[in-house]
Task: structure prediction
Amino acid sequence: MGAGDDTLIATGSGETITGAQGIDTLTGIGGIDTFVFNQGDSARGNANGNAAQNIDVITDFGVTDFLDLSLIGTAFNYTDGGLYLNYTAFLAAADAALDGTTRYFFAVYDNDANGIDAGDDGWLAVSYNPLTGVADEVIQLTGFTALAAGDII
Result:
């Protein structure tokens, strides 16, 4: 794990997997995993057609897993943004919602315009600086569409 782009795969279940600077792909291999990201580890990314590129990806986030982002998620700083058909619209909505009180904005990328289904991914925008009002980083949760504030520790 370094400052470049890394692929990190856990060796068992119930592990802590820590991303670093660069574009990382993290896989937990089952169990109750905790995925750790620190301020400055990730980026906002950019649009590649309708999808996102240059963001960190968790390939197997599940209902028993947690995100450790150094800011605890609560009902007061977390917003579920619904469904988006493209990354540009998602980022615009995230930037509008991340107002200093809201620090996390989660939405689903509906990649086939058929509503939420098995092929969709979740995008979590994070604002570490309450004064900027923009997403500092975005993390993709591949195939996961039901993040809740309690999943962020």
